[in-house]
Amino acid sequence: MKFFREPNTYVGSVNLKVENLQKSIPFYRDVIGLQIIEQTEKKVKLTADGKTTLLTLEQPDFVVGKQDNTTGLYHFALLLPNRLELAKVLKHFIDHNVPIGASDHLVSEALYLNDPDGNGIEIYHDRPEENWDWQASEVKMAVDPLDAPSILNELNGERWEGLPSNTIMGHIHLHVSDLNKALQFYKDGLGFHVVNQFGNQALFMSTGQYHHHIGLNTWQGAGAPPASKESVGLKSFELVFPSEAHREKVIRQVTELGFQVKQEMNIFVTEDPSGNLIKLCI
User: Fold this and answer.
1) Which of 144, 149, 208, 248 is least surrounded by Cβ atoms within 10 Å, i.e. has the fewest?
2) Exposed, middle or buried by CB within 10 Å (0-12, 13-18, 19+), for 62?
3) How confident is the model at residue 1 (pLDDT cuts 50, 70, 90)?
4) Mean pLDDT, residues 254-268 taken together
5) Who's near 56: CB < 8 A, 6+ residues apart?
6) What is the mean predicted confidence (pLDDT) over 91-120?
7) pTM above threshold 0.85
8) CATH of range 2-281; options 3.30.70.3450, 3.10.180.10, 3.40.50.720, 3.40.190.10
9) Could you tell me the maximum CA-CA distance found in the chain, to the nearest angstrom?
């Protein structure tokens, strides 16, 4: 997991707004396999290892359903440690008739589904990095059919018992309104590098030559507005920086680009050009 420690910058926890917490909790516990680490009437923190919060769900006092043609979350992605664990998840979904999509991205194999509010989720494992095909600074990725029978052959009688404790947040993929403005913010401001681009509608960025920590797309339409504050969807996500000095440098860069960085306790918060809220953490 070298891509998720110093000297890299990576995604920490993700915070979602949901319409009905009592409907969302069973889904994330029984379908996805996360555990509750902390719960109040309007908020729950979910974990894979019993200690680290991967996902926070909040039910606002005033909330409306998911809004189309807006910026925000495309999906968050939970990274499993190996292919066997993906096989367990796949068999679990099949056994419980969970509607899913699936893709072979060459660098990874992935399953896709939505939560009860339509928030996108990816669950994936990485192929060994020595098998990734780099051409200069770009890594080859694709959207090929997933070889499900081959994955299920990994099982050897083993069964799903929830997500393994070493599951982490692998990346986040966002709808943005302007790809060029987003590129400038995430590259010149936050310090990510472009590692793959799909035409003029999507690009993928990382640190440390990961295949991507951040995905950006305009598939909701160029110029799409942010969702309303009352809409379900992404509330915020964390970026974890390797040091205080690195974070201070990024804050200067973001500010020089003309974006505000606000301090809340020891957390610094900013918004990308499409209104996606980011907590800058160490």
Assistant:
1) 149
2) exposed
3) confident
4) 92
5) 13, 14, 15, 16, 43, 44, 45, 46
6) 98
7) yes
8) 3.10.180.10
9) 56
